[in-house]
Amino acid sequence: MRIASLSPTASDILGHVGAIDELVGVSSYCLPFIGQRKRVIGSYTTVSLKALRELNPDVVFLEGVVQDGLKDVVEGAGFRTILLPFPRSLGTILDDVILVGTLAGRHRESVELAARLREGMRPSELDGGKRPRVYVEFWLGRDEEDRVVPGALTYVDEMIYVAGGINVLSDVPRGFSRLDPGEVVRLDPDVVIFHLDPFLKMDPEILGRRGWTGIRAVRSGRVHTIWESSEVNLAHHGPSTLVRSISWLSSVISEARKT
After folding, report:
1. How many Å apart are CA 91 and CA 37, to the nearest integer?
2. Which stretches of 165-224 are DSSP H helices?
3. Strand partners, 59
4. Using CB atoms within 10 A of its CB, is residue 179 exposed (0-12), middle (13-18) or buried (19+)?
């Protein structure tokens, strides 16, 4: 089977279920998660139809929401597509593992992978006390409008809970959206996490400019900045980083519980 994937999640899964040799084309965003070089046929939002025609894959994997528009482009060129739903929960991520693996002819391997991931996603055992309230902000670009936070209908909300905390927006029934900085002052989180694309630099003046110097997370030194990587990555929902990211969250939240 010849597989192309513009989805970092699908490419990651294919590598973990033993189908990496059948993966003939990927996006540039897939490369950090597959462990070897493959022909790049696009980015997260673009595709080269010329490259697709040269590779002639049996199926092209895409991710929902961001790549919805690419589905029409790829199908319009005559290729079969599988659009993975954007996960609102950890359960959806496990469903994607089984879906991608099974479609690649690796059903047993995908079920075993899902079981291992499920074992690594067991909720932290808490010895009483309140769950620290966690604010996570994703920086997807250089401007304020490129910065979003997860609501209750996101897998990140569940990751925080499994790691022993509670998302400050866990009572807001929405996905990722922008949040007014003044609202963060009112929410007064115990932990703040800035999650940046690899090419971005942290703005050292942002806490003061936003008026956050008095919130609990800043006063207690619980402000963390991480960059997307193949080690810890809250923006990636593939098997390479999922359990490690939950473990990192758990360590950050556990430290906050001590203060």
Report:
1. 30
2. 181-187, 206-209, 216-219
3. 3
4. middle
Asked if 99 and 84 count as a contact pair (C-beta separation under 8 A), the reply is yes
Q: How many CB atoms lie within 10 A of CB 245?
A: 23
Say how far apart CA 157 and CA 153 lie, in whole Å. 7
Check: CB of residue 96 under 8 Å from CB of residue 84: yes
- Would you place residue 7 in the very low, low, confident or very high pLDDT band (cuts 50, 70, 90)? very high
- 27 within 8 A of 6, measured Cβ to Cβ: yes
Q: Which residues contact 33 (CB under 8 A, 6 or more apart)?
A: 8, 11, 12, 15, 230, 236, 238, 240, 241
CA distance 113 to 103: 15
The values of phi and psi at residue 148, to 5°, are: -130, 160
How many helices and strands in the chain, by DSSP H and E? 10, 11
Mean pLDDT of 59-65: 95
pTM for this predicted structure: 0.94
pLDDT tens, residue by residue, 226-245 = 999 999 999 999 999 999 99
Q: At what angle do helices 107-120 and 242-257 cross, to 10 degrees?
A: 10
